[in-house]
């Protein structure tokens, strides 16, 4: 790794867009990770599964936590 990469990453995190992009990437990654077990569990029960619908449900769940994290972290800094 060269020394310009950490500086670039720090610069991205200093911008509001960079933090929002990181939060969105984390929400999508966690949603993908949580979709697979839910699909597998429903298939084992013998239920019809639409994996994309489950993924959208997970994005909604984790997206709410992603949006709620900003004021929670702000409150934690204030305290």
Structure in words:
With 79 residues, this protein is mainly α. The protein is built from three helices and no strands. It has helices at 4-14, 16-44, 51-78. Helix 1 (4-14) crosses helix 2 and helix 2 packs across helix 3 (51-78).
Entry keywords:
single chain, 79 residues, mainly alpha, 86% helix, elongated
Query: Rg to the nearest angstrom?
Result: 17 Å
| Helix/strand order | HHH
The helix tally amounts to 3
The mean pLDDT is 86
Describe the secondary structure blueprint for this structure.
Blueprint: H1 4-14, H2 16-44, H3 51-78
Helix pairs in contact: 1-2, 2-3
Brief summary:
Helix content is 86%, strand content 0%.
């Amino acid at each position: 790794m060269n020394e310009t990469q950490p500086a670039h990453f720090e610069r991205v995190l200093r911008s509001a867009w960079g933090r929002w992009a990181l939060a969105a990437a984390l929400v999508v990654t966690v949603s993908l990770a949580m979709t697979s077990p839910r699909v597998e569990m429903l298939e084992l029960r013998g239920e019809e599964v639409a994996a994309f619908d489950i993924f959208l449900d997970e994005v909604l769940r984790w997206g709410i936590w992603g949006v709620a994290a900003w004021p929670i972290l702000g409150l934690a800094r204030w305290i």
